[in-house]
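dude i think i finally got it to work??
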Amino acid sequence: MQEAIHFIQKYAVAYLSSILQALEVAWHAQVCGLKWSPDDREIASGGNDNQLYVWGLHSTAPTIKFSDHTAAVKAIAWSPHQHGLLASGGGTADRCIRFWNTATASALSAVDTGTSFSKLALASFCCTML
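look at this
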């Protein structure tokens, strides 16, 4: 049992280290937000260069790049009900929550809220958006 635990810990540290190295290479700006998808197959990263990247589980480079924000992307949330539905919130100059489909790498919609975001969450108790 101890060997199995040691192997899992070693693998997890190595895997997280490779993700962080890949993020450092891809980002030429400060990373402001990170969020794993509910199925742990993708991770979304936002930065102060207004970019939102989506990374595959074993990718060493972003698989998707969204460039629609006009300010830092700090707030990131995945839908717990719809695979590939991602939401992101921009900073002061942007003031938008943007919705993305990572399965098709497309923008879905944007809502100008009049304020900036540093945190964002999609409700886990409801499967429809009001």
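The chain has a mean pLDDT of 81.
im so relieved honestly
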